[in-house]
Design a protein that fits this description.
This protein has four helices and three strands, in the order αββααβα. By secondary structure, it is of the alpha+beta class. Strand 1 and strand 2 form a beta hairpin. The protein starts with 24 loop residues before the first helix and ends with a helix.
Length: 125
């Protein structure tokens, strides 16, 4: 089933989990993609250049990173308060698969990437 795009948020319960059910690997990958799209579509009006990525960890846990200039000048709680309303159409029983959502400005993301590359380089020394 393809994802819907446009003015309506793409989340549909038919492609998410059902309350009380544990998702299989295919279902969790679909949910991962859906949650990314929910953020892209819901945040695009604020920041058309938003970058959204996620990693699927062991135990079917989704770690998401959102990079947006709109986070500049806001602390962590303020950033969360800005972003979390985009998840309104997503049932809580699907959100439990998301373990964290890292909210960064483009500058913070660039610094994080540089730090990670330096750490990986040190491992090879």
């Amino acid at each position: 089933m393809g994802m819907q795009t446009g003015t309506r948020l793409p989340y549909t319960e038919t492609t998410g989990s059902r309350q009380g059910e544990i998702m299989d690997a295919e279902g969790i990958r679909l949910l991962q993609a859906q949650l990314e799209e929910v953020v892209r579509e819901g945040w695009r009006e604020r920041d058309p250049e938003v970058q959204v990525s996620s990693v699927l960890r062991e135990g079917n846990k989704i770690d998401m990173t959102v990079v947006s200039q709109e986070f500049a000048g806001h602390n962590g709680r303020e950033r969360e308060a800005l972003l979390w309303p985009v998840f309104a159409p997503v049932p809580k029983y699907d959100l439990i698969y998301m373990t964290y959502c890292l909210l960064l400005t483009p500058e913070e993301a660039a610094n994080t990437a540089l730090t990670q590359r330096a750490a990986n380089t040190d491992d090879w020394a």
